[in-house]
Amino acid sequence: MLSIRPATANDIPLILEFIRELAEYEREPQAAVATSEDLLRDGFTPNVAPKFRVVIAEWDGKSAGFALFFYNYSTWQGRPGLYLEDLFVRPVFRGKGIGKALLLHLAKTAVKENCGRFQWQVLDWNTPALDFYKSLGAEVMKEWLTMRVENDALKRMAEMGDEV
After folding, report:
1. Which of 18, 46, 83, 159 would suit a FRET pair with 138, their CA atoms being 20 to 30 Å apart?
2. Does domain 2-163 have CATH number 3.40.630.30?
């Protein structure tokens, strides 16, 4: 019933659908501005190291969910880490263990690729997800806060480097 497979460039339209559906769920549909060209350039250009990878979950041959991830590096551990950027299961397929299967698939990938950790973020209002992740052994890292600089603020910050 369930299969998980690596995405290919042919899946880009589907990946974009998942990204937009996730943005709707997270109450920020206007924030999902990625294009097919972006995904092709950064994840599926031949002979170029991909900046991300994607796995697709299918239930009875139907596209049910996806996980988009990439690697970071822990200087303290001296090993890569797997960072889950997006995990999404379409509402009609929820309750079938697909989200759990995607997470377990990525955990196996992390172990196989000698990663020292597997990390992701979750919105603080998403109690079902928080409870689910905790049931799998995940910890909420309360002492760590995410910092973000984007859009015009990122450009201004970059320009500050010209003054140094």
Report:
1. 18
2. yes
